[in-house]
Amino acid sequence: MAAAQGLDFRKLHTGPAVPRAKAEIRKHVDFLDVDRPLHSDHNTMMVLVKTLDIKRAVEKRDRPLRDLLIVLSPFDYQKGSRVQLPVR
Question: What spatial distance separates the first Cα and last Cα of the chain, rounded to whole Å?
């Protein structure tokens, strides 16, 4: 939910799975444009995660999620060099 909100503020170039995940979230949780209690949004997100709805939305056109290479940072912080992670 927080990532979807952040992506709404910044138009970033992302992989093909990210817009589908965000779209699935936005089907159920509205953009936070005014202060409101988030209890129901959090409960909705909990259901989306538990039922794997976001995962299914991503996998509609992509390989299974476990096969996608998701790298939070391309740098190995210990060595200070780029790392190449294998896709299983």
Answer: 28
pLDDT class of 84 with cuts at 50, 70, 90: low
- Which residues make Cβ contacts (< 8 Å) with residue 47, sequence separation at least 6? 53
Mean pLDDT for all residues in the chain: 76
Tokens of 42: 């959090």
Q: Where are the domains of the chain?
A: 2-82
Q: How far apart are CA 22 and CA 35, in angstroms?
A: 21
DSSP, collapsed to helix, strand or coil, labels residue 51 as coil
Alpha-carbon distance of 87 to 40, in angstroms, equals 37
